Amino acid sequence: MKINFPLPTDKKRHRYCQNCLSEKVKDIKVKEKTLYQCEDCGKSYDRLIDIDPALTWWVDEKTKEYWHESIGVFIINSDGGILLIERVIFPYGFTIPAGHLEAGEKPLTAATRELEEETGINADNLTLFSEEGVPNDRCRRGADYHKWHLYTYLLTNSQSIIPNRQEGKNPIWLTLEESLKQNFTYPTRFFLEKYGNKLINSALPNLSGRTGN
After folding, report:
1. CATH code for the domain in which residue 128 is found
2. From residue 154, how far is each of 31, 44, 63, 122, 205 by CA, in Å?
3. Total structural domains within the chain
4. What dihedral angle (degrees, nearest 10) is formed by the CA atoms of 101, 119, 189, 143?
5. Is residue 187 part of a domain?
6. What's the pLDDT tens digit per position in 47-94?
7. Whether 94 contacts 187, CB under 8 Å
8. What CA–CA distance (Å, rounded) separates 39 from 79?
9. Can you give the pTM of this predicted structure?
10. Is 48 part of a structural domain of the chain?
11. Which Pfam families match (predicted)?
């Protein structure tokens, strides 16, 4: 979203209704999904404008677009399968383990933290795959643009996946071909369609018979 109003300067977190910019916003649950209801205008949305000093964010001076910085991890198993988790908060759909970069946090530290929080996997050998800006990437905190730090990780054992129930459910392993038939979050589909087997090969560099798209 564009930020066309004065930003707070008190270094505190502020949450605004995307319709009327009131700060009287509360979380509500509707059929397992989290919405944000405004007490002033009465409207409910799956997004709000969340200005949080605990996160890494900025507003583009020219476009006024609100940017966040994010990390994501494509987890690949020894068969070339991709781990996907179904989100229960916006953006809905299947996704990879991902999250926002905290203020002052290094991307690799954030990726390791998010991976453990969202899957229970404790990993220390993630591979950096890409760093790039992704437009039209709408998150529940109000940003439509994100700078992504994308990692891959090879899971070589049969460790159980324990999703964070506040954000996701139904972890599933799928091939690339099977994955592309799913309902994805925007950035997950963006990266899968852009890079395809290159993502898998980055975790399985010696796997024969796979070529990049």
Report:
1. 3.90.79.10
2. 34, 40, 39, 12, 10
3. 1
4. -30
5. yes
6. 999 999 999 999 999 999 999 999 999 999 988 999 999 988 889 999
7. no
8. 50
9. 0.89
10. no
11. NUDIX
Which pair of structure tokens corresponds to residue 107?
């991307």
pLDDT of amino acid 119: 92
- Report H helices in 149-185: 176-179
Neighbours of 170 (CB within 10 A): 11
Amino acid of residue 190? F
Question: In the chain, which residue ranges form alpha helices assigned H by DSSP?
Answer: 107-119, 176-179, 186-195, 197-203
Q: Which helix (H) or strand (E) holds 172?
A: strand 168-174
Burial 140-162 (b: 16+ CB within 10 A, else e): bbbbbbbbbbbbbbbbeeeeebe
Compute and round to an integer the Cα radius of gyration of the chain: 18
Write the DSSP symbol of residue 2: B
Compute φ and ψ for 146, nearest 5 degrees. -135, 140
| Mean pLDDT, residues 127-143 | 96
Q: Is residue 174 part of a domain?
A: yes
Residue 163 has pLDDT above 70, yes or no: no
**Which structural domain, as residue segments, surrounds residue 73?**
66-203
Has residue 158 got a pLDDT over 90?
no
